[in-house]
Amino acid sequence: KLMREAGNAIQAIKPVFMMSPMSIASFLPPREIEFDLVVFDEASQVKPVDAFGAVMRGRQLVVVGDSKQLPPTSFFETLASDSEAEDEDDDVPPSADMESILGLTAGQGVFQRMLRWHYRSRHESLIALSNQEFYDHRLVVFPSPDATRTGLGLVYHHLTDTAYDRGRSRTNRKEAATVARAVMRHARERPSLSLGVAAFSMAQADAIIDELERLRQGDPAAEAFFSKHPYEPFFVKNLESVQGDERDVIFISTTFGKAVGTDKVRQNFGPISRPDGWRRLNVLFTRSKRRIELFTSMSPEDIVVDEKTPLGKKALR
Asked: Which residues fall within 8 angstroms of residue 78, CB to CB, at 6 or more apart?
């Protein structure tokens, strides 16, 4: 009602509105307020049906996003349990990723420009894989002046005594416990650096949270860390949910590995095995500013590839 009756006055006082597409549809009555310019950020995540209300309220449109990251998805709408449920049944059809407002505008032949400067990574190794596999070496990566310092780049934790509980909890409990202990060590030794944890499934993210809560109860001295970074708070998420996040340090739990009681790794890695699974890895591998630590029971040789293997699985290897 306020926007309908006093929208022009409000716009004169505050000419810039920052709103989600759904908030625009809810709070800005049609034909009451117009904008000279409408800008979409993270446009690869915005469905056209959600975007049109904002588009119709503007005279000029700028759409910013990365077509090599996640499009809008019905992933959570179709899976009742967790993001790895499909691993247990190969006959379940994958949920369709839908076209975004980014793809729709690109398809109309509008002027495009690639933003090539990669500012986030403080060490070249953090972006090297994505630059090679997904961006055809087109990103401009700046040299790391402090590359010889410890604490930057990639760290590989090969956990040989862990196992994936396929068909039951669909978690890797020992891996989750190892990640939780690493979080507590980070909280004590490097509290000035922000931290995020990403797991390959919702079930594994929940397992890490459970282990972490237990450890936090026994170590109250580390609690200050978990409220230390208000603008980049600590998180534990699955890989479907990390787009848009950035932290100094990212821990990754791959979850999958040799099943309990066997020496074989089943060649199905959840959404990573889909034709568009590489987009999820591209999002996941580009969240960190200083260091990525990979916790996994797998070695590269455990991931079998051939000429028909999807790009996501090859990139994971």
From this structure: 95
If DSSP states are collapsed to H, E and C, what string results for 83-103?
CCHHHHCCCCCCCCECCCHHH
Closest among 159, 155, 153 to 177, alpha carbons compared = 159
CA distance 60 to 50: 18
Q: Distance between CA atoms of 241 and 237, rounded to whole angstroms? A: 6
Please say whether the beta carbons of 303 and 265 come within 8 A: yes
Task: Report the C-alpha dihedral over residues 99, 16, 286, 277, rounded to 10 degrees.
Answer: -10
Residue 266 forms beta bridges with which residues?
Answer: none
Phi, psi for residue 24 in degrees, rounded to 5: -60, -45
Give the separation between CA 122 and CA 120, rounded to whole angstroms.
6
Q: Are 37 and 8 in contact (CB under 8 A)?
A: no
Nearest to 277 by CA among 316, 251, 232: 316
Per-residue pLDDT of the chain (317 residues; tens, 9 = 90+): 999 999 999 999 999 999 999 999 899 988 888 999 999 998 988 999 999 999 999 999 999 999 898 877 654 444 444 444 444 434 334 444 568 999 999 888 899 999 898 888 888 889 999 999 999 999 998 877 665 566 888 999 999 888 898 878 889 999 999 999 999 999 999 999 999 999 999 999 999 999 999 999 999 889 999 998 999 999 999 988 898 899 999 999 999 988 877 888 888 888 888 888 899 999 999 999 999 999 999 999 999 999 889 999 999 99
CA angle 158, 159, 163 (to 5 degrees): 135
Contacts of 198 (CB under 8 A, 6+ apart): 205, 236, 237, 238, 239, 242, 250, 251, 252, 253, 284, 287
**Strands 235-238 and 61-63, sheet pairing:** unpaired
φ, ψ of residue 258 in degrees (nearest 5): -65, 130
Would you list the DSSP string of 35-72?
BS-EEESSGGG--HHHHHHHHTTBSSEEE---TTSPPP
